[in-house]
Design goal:
148 residues, mainly alpha, 7 helices, disordered N terminus
Length: 148
């Protein structure tokens, strides 16, 4: 079986999201005994992407041929069940961003001071760079509401 190669030997993107068509083809190729390397070349993705998705498929007990031709939604539900961050289940304690905006309006209060206070209360919490990112996002949110 001849497999397409990446053009001019360029590196494949790491851990890119696969389409449902690619996921089905990955399962089919894997079920047929094709190596992870060859699957990655066929799909035009990184080996780590194939490895991650095959691991998800194994955890979901999905093998080719898929029983009963599940819909894309059903297949995605099995493959990606429990992935992502659920509301209220963050790894680090979230600062109260509304209070942060109010505090920043007070004279002499800086993002650095608020960040240090947060880190004193939550040593394993977000770093100062998270505060800077948050301020940037809050500023963008204010601009979208017409207040420049």
């Amino acid at each position: 079986m001849k497999l397409p190669c990446s053009e001019q030997g360029s590196a494949m993107p790491a851990n890119r999201k696969l389409t449902m068509r690619q996921l089905r083809q990955m399962l089919r190729l894997s079920g047929g005994g094709t190596s992870i390397r060859d699957i990655a070349l066929t799909l035009g993705v990184a080996r780590s992407t194939v490895q991650d998705n095959l691991k998800r498929a194994a955890e979901a007990e999905l093998v080719w041929p898929l029983p009963g031709e599940p819909t894309d939604e059903a297949l995605a539900g099995k493959l990606f069940e429990g992935s992502g961050v659920k509301p209220g289940m963050r790894r680090r304690p979230e600062p109260n961003w509304a209070d942060l905006v109010i505090e920043l309006k007070k004279p002499g209060v800086t993002l650095l001071i608020l960040g240090e206070g947060y880190r004193a209360i939550h040593p394993g919490g977000y770093s100062y760079s998270r505060y800077v990112a948050a301020k940037f996002m809050l500023r963008l949110g204010g601009m979208s509401q017409g207040s420049r």
